[in-house]
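[job 0417] fold request received: (S)-ureidoglycine aminohydrolase
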Amino acid sequence: MKPSFGQTRSDIRRNHALLTPESHEWITQPDWPGAELAFLISPDMGAKFAMALVRTSDGLSGIAPAAEGVARFIFVLEGRVSASTGQTLEAEGYALLPPDDTAKLTAPAATRFVLFEWRFLPRGELPEPIFGSVSEIDGTPLRGDDWLMVQKMLPTDAGFDGEFNIMNFHPGASLAYVETHFMEHGLLMLDGGGVYRLDNEWYPVGAGDAIWMGPHVPQWFGALGRTPSRYLIYKNYNRSPLAQR
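[job 0417] inference complete; emitting structure tokens
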């Protein structure tokens, strides 16, 4: 249901934000022919990464690699995305394209995916590109709670400067405590819903909602309803808080 005239659930604060579908601004970009993008999170709001939703109308052809030093992660919501290196991602497929990767992306009409970009902090040699699918990843209970399963999409070794996970909540499950840490997050609700606490605000959230959590913001989620809840979440990882991005 659309909000009343002049209303939105989106809420932008100093150290966090809720970005809801009724407030998305879809734009075109010269480097993305055939696509529209809604940038939900960017450095202009205080984040050290960018997160966008991408949708294609006439099809996406030959998107150039990211700028020098910038890594990309994509997660397909609908349709398919192909890389010039031969891999094709269907719904819930994902790819990490490290800095200086030369792959170009294409997608047919009616494709939707999430795009993350950030300035990669190398430690030793850059990792190789990674292509995968959520369906191929086993879940692991978070802190022994089998009502809260985590699917890790990237290796955890020190060559990677971030994590991308799918969090799976049984109805009624929640994070074990209110977290505060120097890492920041970008999040997209995939299924179900619940309540997210950010700082001293409590936000009802559902599929399609996105969240930015800045460094040190108190954060907690509890799943509500009769169906499982899932979200995709990014955080910077494996690097000191003094590291420069």
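[job 0417] notes: The two ends are 40 Å apart (CA to CA). The longest strand covers residues 70-78.
[job 0417] exit 0
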